[in-house]
Amino acid sequence: MTEDQIRDKLATILIEDFAKDEAIARDGESSFRGDLAMDSLDVVDLVFFIKQELGVDAKMEAYRDLHTVDKVVHFVLGHLSSDD
Q: How far apart (Å, rounded) are the C-alpha atoms in residues 78 and 81?
């Protein structure tokens, strides 16, 4: 899966499951707490959706420092690449 495909899937999750604005969801600089106004329970749900939709089975602690869309995209890309 490419970086763009991961970004599209993540944006789709944010738009469809969390009702976030498309432009903000697709902006790599968008922060989850600030720009996307997500709280800690939203983040738990997001991790679940990432596991379900993208197949990344990482512990919640692994996401702790991933504050932007770009950071999550690169994290997922790294996990998918290491599974090959």
A: 5
pTM (two decimals): 0.91
| Cα of 59 vs its chain's centroid, Å | 14
Name the residue range of residue 18's domain.
3-77
**Structural domain count of the chain:** 1
Pairwise CA distance, residues 58 & 60, whole Å: 6
In a domain, 83, yes or no: no
State pLDDT tens for residues 41-69: 999 999 999 999 999 988 889 998 999 99
